[in-house]
Request: fold
Amino acid sequence: METLIQTWQVFIITFQGSSVVSYVLMFIPFVLLLELPLYLICWLGVFRHIIQDCFKVPVISPHFPCVTCTITCYSEGEAVQNTVISLLEQIYPGHIEIIAMVDGVKQNRVTYDALKALRPSLSYYSNRSLIIVPKFQRGGRVSSMNAGLSRASGEIICALDGDTSFDNQMIYHAALRFSNPNIVSVTGPMRVRNANKSLVTRLQNLEYMITMQVGKFGLAKHNVINNVPGAFGIFRKSFLQQIGGWNTGTAEDLDLTLRIKQYQRRHPELRIDYEPGAVSHTDVPESFIDFFKQRLRWDGDLWYVYAHKHQRGFTASLLGWSNFIFLLWYGVLFQIVMPFVIVLYMILMIVISPLTFFLSSMLIIYLFYFGLTLIQFFLFLIFVSDRKLEDLSAVVVSPFFPIFQFFVRVWSAVALLNQIFNRGHLDSAMAPLWVLKKGKK
Reply:
């Protein structure tokens, strides 16, 4: 109790005495230079979309092109049926061709049988087709997606995971975006399907709302969207074929996004867009152990892609100045440099600061980020969410969210070090080791 009283006293003194100067110099620059401007840019993009939407004339397309949905299947089992059914039941008058690639069919017989069991039900759906491709040699995600691309007959390609499902108007809304000939790729909101399973799924649900949804929504308006997710990406087939489809290796979604961006200096009219009505649903890890395993791969892949695979393509002459500056700021400084800065800042504070000052500083940081979380969450709820009552329940875990984000940032530094010194991208379930070794090291 005495320590808590001392901490509160130092907390007050921090704002009244000279110690505030040193504290501001240590902490505030990270926020002012890296974080708050990023949030501001995202929200300006969101508000710009909302204002434009008020005056936009509704588009009714006279043409509904064939859409091919390529599904990469690996060990989903009967859950893959939910994905296929959600595509069969789309409210879209055009033809939807579903191509399901079963990677390593001998090991994934249950998934293959679950897909075959859906064939009789196709007679209930008009203008729908299902092609099942059994791949006897497992080649990984990239191999499966390129196999689907080579067989696709649609003008639009939806690259999807076998455990992702969709709102029934997803394809209709996404296809409308491609009526603009400059749109080469589209993505939409990814919602957490198993949000109520555990504390970590609830936290990820909040993260998907205020960082991933808002981020892609806002950044799309500035044409600097950071990544088209591998689980839910929609592309113009002719452009996808022009750039050679997907490339060998892990982090194939970020790799493809960067290759699209590398056309934008020469073709600034090209856009990666975001469609709020194209909603997908995915399952996230249900335990902290599985969550940190996932982020070990996700965050480590950033170094693999930026520092190795695309080190020569990371230039303004290819990306254009807007994408180059944004990737330098967000991709390098925010995602790669800042995790190490946070770890070093914490070590420095522990070493040089008295316990009470350290605790008071952590309390100030926590209160700041908790306030920022609440502001972003309620802005999301008011201006972005299409399911306000359902999403409102996420406020329950908001007090834990700043702590969760802190550990995610620290773990990001661990993941980056694992990639730098241990080549972590070779330890991935996305493809067999012999396939990953074929990629650029």
User: Anything to note?
Assistant: The two ends are 54 Å apart (CA to CA). Strands lie at 67-73, 96-103, 128-135, 156-161, 165-166, 183-187, 190-192, 232-236, 271-274, 280-282. Confidence is low (pLDDT under 50) at residues 10-18. Residues 1-58+180-441 form one domain.
